[in-house]
Every structure is written in C-alpha cells, then in structure tokens.
TrEMBL record:
Keywords: Membrane, Transmembrane, Transmembrane helix
Record bears the keyword ATP-binding: no
Identification of the protein by name: XRE family transcriptional regulator
Chain segments annotated as transmembrane: 104-124, 136-157, 189-211, 217-238
Amino acid sequence: METIKSYLEAMFASMANTPEVRKAKAELLQMMEDKYNEMIADGISENEAVGTVIAEFGNLDELAEDLGLTKEVEEVHEREHEQPRRFVTMDEIRDYIETQKKRALLIAIGVFLCITSLVPPMLADVINSGSRADSLGPALMFIFIGTAVGLFVYSGVIGGEWRYIEKEACKIDLATADMTRGMRSAFKSFRAVSLTIGCVLCVISIIPCILFDESAFAPAGMFIFVAIGVFLFVYSGVISGGFETVLKINDRETISGKYGRDKDDIEYTSKTAEVIMEVYWPTVTCIYLIYSFLTFNWPSSWVIWIIAWILRKILVTVFEKEED
C-alpha cells in the first residue's frame, strides 16, 4: 500500500496545492485503496494488486475529467513546458549533503581562525621578550587570516558543482524528501546541543577578563571562548541550511512544495510552546529595557539581544513539530 501512496504523491507532485486538488487526491487514494483491498480479498498477490491498481488509476491525464482537474492538469503541462524543472536524484542529494558537511567544517574553522587571529599579538605583548616576539604575533595573525581565506575559497570551490540546486529550478521526489527529513531530524539534537554549548561559551567568555583582570590573557581567553562558540554556531548552521535548501527545492505552489516549509510556517509541539514563542520577543524587549534603565549599562546591555537570538534558535529546535 505504501507503494501506491508513493506513486500517488509522484502523480500529484506538480499539481497546484489547492483545496480542490487535495480533495481530488484524497478521493483517488480512497478509490485506489478500495480496489487494492478488493483484490487482496480475492486472493491476488500484493505485487499483482499494486501493479493492477497503478495501471488502472495511474494516469492523471485520463482521470483529470472524472476528478474535475482538467484545467489544473493543463496548467501543469503549460508550466512544465515554459519552465522545465531539473530532477535531482536521491544520490545527488546525498552527495550534496555530504559536501555541505565538509563545507561546514571548512567555513567553521575559517571563522574560528579569523576570531582567534587577534590572540597571537595579545600573547606576544605578555611574553614581551624582544623584537622577535613582537614580530611573531602579527606574523601569526596574518597566517591565521590567510589560512582562513584559503579555507573559504576552497569551500566555495567544492560547493560550486552544486550551485544548480540553489540557483536553478529543480525538483525532488517524495522518497528523497523523506530521506532528507529523516537526516534533518537525526541532526536536530546535535544542532540543539551545539547552539546550547555555543551560547554558554559566549556568555562565560567574560570569565577570563574577571580572572586575569588587566592582563593580556583576559581578552585572549575571551576571544578563544567566543571563537569556539561561533565555530559550533557556524558548523551546525551550514549543515542545517543544507537540509532546508533541499526541502525547499520544489515549487512552493505545488503539492510537492509541502516537502519543505518556510520559517513563518513553523508548527510547535504544543499550545504552550506556541504561546511561549509568540511572547518571546516582547518579553526580551521588556527585559532589555528594564535592565538598561535600572543599571544605565547601555554600552553592554545590547548583548541581551545576541543571547536572546541564540536562545530562540535553541527553543525553536526543541519545540518545533516534526512534519508528517
């Protein structure tokens, strides 16, 4: 029966996502199920029953008039003729996601090196053992930056072959979308942990400044903490972005467009979670204003917005409802 459902999804993949089309799809599925169950009851094998059902109901052009979808089917043919969409196979999507993981690591390391490039000059001031140490700090800084730029360039090169997925009109089938959703779901816990640890590291990055007071170790330690936190943000973010790109390949106006979802279409696991997310930013604004007016610490209170943004990412990851 799953084979029949998958075939039906493929039949309607390019159809407009309207109430009429969804109703016709449900009616056709019911007819196919009735025929399948009838044949199974008559002692026909499952494979033969599936083949017969698909042969009898598997041509949407022939069924369009009976389903009241003549106009919609004609529109699909016109749209496909005017703007054909490149079909992306499951193997291509697997390779694309693996490439995204490699790119995520390269970009994250590059960002880490850019942030920590300021550390060598700071430590050189602490060592203060002569002109050689003074020159070593800036030299290491430029080595860090140069290496980071090289990683960014290489990341762009290996991602170039997949540019068509992001730029061209493409489409994927239901099986590929299900596979990608499964991979995204498995990655979800890692994403949440990465955001949480990264947020904690950014918050506690002030500790070196407290421990070392006016020493150059203070800002150096702070930059290292922040760099590790940002590394986790970038690494998990690039991979997560790859999953979202794949799930948004299909035309958003068609049935297959439901494989992906816009950020504004997020559904939460419960009504409580939905209420929390609705009042989240107003609450953050109140906290920011109350804290700032009570302490007059306007120069540093803006950090609340960064922490709030990261925390919201974590909450969305935790509370987001899985797609059916």
